[in-house]
Amino acid sequence: MRISIRKRTAALGIATVAGLAGIGVTAGPALASTDSTSVATTAKDTQSSGHPTTSLKYADDLVRAFGVGSEVEVEKLATDAVVKTLSEHGDAHASRWHRIAADSAAGSTYVAYTNLDTGEMMTLGVSNEKSANGSNHAVRQIRFDD
């Protein structure tokens, strides 16, 4: 009986360690921190998996420009479609966006923000190639979710 309990305890311990290791491999740095990072922080402070810092900077700069009402800067950083969507959305709480995540896929970096006043989510898609070249209109996609 004692051997059976020891074997089960050992098997349970091994399964627990293997499961936790699997979560770490699958989720990567996304689970490394539950602390959100604000737009004002630098790219090196953000928990993310492999996004180019130039694309992240484009997204953060667009959010800042939108927050302070700098139409010239918004039009420089984003495509016409993104500018139109921002304009239609309105700027009642534009200065209250807080970056919560960033990741890259298929040549783009996707940066997610939440509005501290409304709880709304905004995701920006930035072209890695355009941002790496320092081109205008690198922010190419936008989506709002309630």
Describe it:
This protein has 146 residues and is of the alpha+beta class. The chain is built from five helices and four strands, in the order H-H-H-H-E-E-E-H-E. It has helices at residues 2-27, 53-68, 71-77, 80-89, 128-132, and strands at 97-105, 108-115, 121-127, 139-145. It has a four-stranded antiparallel sheet. Helix 2 (53-68) runs antiparallel to helix 3 (71-77). The longest helix is centred in the first third of the chain and has 26 residues, at 2-27. The radius of gyration is 20 Å and the shape is globular. Residues 9-13 and 15-51 have low confidence and may be disordered.
Mean pLDDT: 76
Structural class: alpha+beta
The H/E string reads HHHHEEEHE
Oligomer classification: single chain
Please give the largest β-sheet. 4 strands, antiparallel
Offer a concise description of the structure.
By secondary structure, this protein is α+β, with helices and mostly antiparallel strands.
Features:
146 residues; alpha+beta; 4-stranded antiparallel β-sheet
Write the layout of secondary structure elements.
Layout: H1 2-27, H2 53-68, H3 71-77, H4 80-89, E1 97-105, E2 108-115, E3 121-127, H5 128-132, E4 139-145
Antiparallel strand pairs: 1-2, 2-3, 3-4
Helix pairs in contact: 2-3
